[in-house]
């Protein structure tokens, strides 16, 4: 095709959202040889149209795409077609797939930002998949992985990521119990000296979550002890059934500015005061809110402050109010 065949022959970035099947094919005339960034959202389409588009992209997409984002409906399996498109792109630096499972052929040597799902349907265990990722992507600095409940995730499963020392953001969403020991938290802190944002919790509306699934609240100070002072954002799935007394030694999160608990349920209304008193000592005063319930689904803001949706008067809001009250009282005593 000559330059006149393209609607915008010098176009470098495409962002295309289709709400109807007929809109999907309209994208094709815009894909010129100069395109380096592709962001496609076909989540509103559940027919064969997304499959036809992906098959066309295999033949017309330039081979040196730097950024590829693809959002599709979970009702339309597209793993094979998406994998074929990504397999031809060896210059990728950013890959974000909202509803597609990660595959070995997607791990490119220059990859810096990765988002996707890890499922048992790939035929690989989470550890095998992450081992391949760590070995193939030495430049990785931002990773968001969603693990299905069938993955039976353990610290051993995610340990290959410890071989990625350039990580700045680590976001691992898992519906299940995180059985972390102190030695595991230390290993993560030692391996990721640059980490500024860490998420180890689920944040979507999964059923059947219990507080006992969470990490003991008494382990929270370990993240201050073993992680770099660069840590600014922390999200953990917490167990509030047995709240310890506030620690005597000072807990130093020197730069922490955002703390979230995802979908962590409070064990009972009786736990509110105890949790607030504990967090009053553990969290820095600049953290003036406990974020709960659903996080935004967009990975670009997955660990950023946000306006919660479906967050109507949760028990964690009450914890936040108690925390604010405790700190106001403390400031009042200081002035006297």
How would you characterize the overall build of this protein?
It is built from nine helices and 13 strands. It is 27% helix and 18% strand. The chain is elongated. The termini are far apart. It has helices at 21-24, 49-60, 79-87, 126-136, 155-158, 182-191, 220-226, 271-282, 315-335, and strands spanning 13-17, 37-42, 67-72, 94-101, 113-118, 142-147, 169-174, 197-200, 215-216, 233-236, 238-239, 258-260, 290-291. The strands form two sheets. An eleven-stranded parallel sheet has the order 1-2-3-4-5-6-7-8-10-12-13. The chain has a two-stranded parallel sheet with strand order 9-11. It is of the alpha/beta class and 336 residues long. Helix 2 (49-60) links the parallel strand 2 and strand 3 (67-72). Helix 6 (182-191) runs parallel beside helix 7 and helix 8 (271-282) packs across helix 9.
């Amino acid at each position: 095709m000559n330059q006149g065949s393209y609607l915008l022959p010098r176009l470098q970035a495409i962002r295309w959202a289709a709400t109807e099947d007929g809109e999907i094919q309209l994208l094709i005339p815009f894909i010129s040889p100069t395109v380096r960034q592709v962001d496609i959202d076909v989540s509103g389409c559940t027919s064969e149209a997304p499959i036809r588009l992906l098959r066309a992209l295999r033949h017309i997409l330039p081979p040196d795409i730097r950024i590829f984002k693809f959002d599709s409906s979970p009702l339309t399996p597209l793993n094979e077609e998406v994998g074929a498109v990504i397999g031809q792109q060896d210059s990728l630096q950013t890959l974000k797939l909202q509803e597609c499972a990660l595959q070995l052929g997607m791990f490119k040597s220059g990859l810096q930002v990765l988002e996707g799902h890890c499922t048992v349907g790939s035929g690989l265990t989470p550890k095998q998949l992450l081992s391949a990722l760590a070995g193939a992507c030495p430049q990785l600095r931002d990773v968001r992985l969603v693990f299905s409940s069938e993955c039976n995730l353990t610290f051993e499963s995610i340990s290959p990521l410890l071989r990625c020392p350039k990580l700045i953001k680590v976001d691992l969403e898992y519906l299940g119990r995180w059985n972390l020991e102190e030695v595991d938290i230390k290993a993560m802190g030692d391996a990721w000296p640059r980490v500024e944002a860490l998420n180890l919790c689920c944040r979507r509306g999964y059923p059947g979550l219990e507080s006992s699934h969470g990490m003991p609240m008494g382990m929270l100070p370990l993240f201050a002890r073993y992680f770099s002072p660069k840590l600014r954002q922390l999200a953990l799935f917490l167990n509030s059934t047995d709240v310890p007394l506030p620690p005597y030694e000072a807990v130093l999160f020197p730069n922490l500015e955002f703390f979230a608990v995802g979908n962590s349920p409070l064990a009972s209304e009786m736990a509110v005061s105890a949790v607030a008193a504990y967090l009053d000592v553990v969290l820095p005063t600049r953290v003036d809110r406990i974020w709960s319930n659903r996080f935004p689904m967009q990975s670009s803001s997955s660990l950023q402050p946000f306006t919660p949706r479906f967050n109507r008067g949760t028990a964690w809001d009450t914890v936040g109010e108690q925390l604010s009250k405790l700190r106001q009282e403390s400031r009042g005593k200081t002035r006297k």
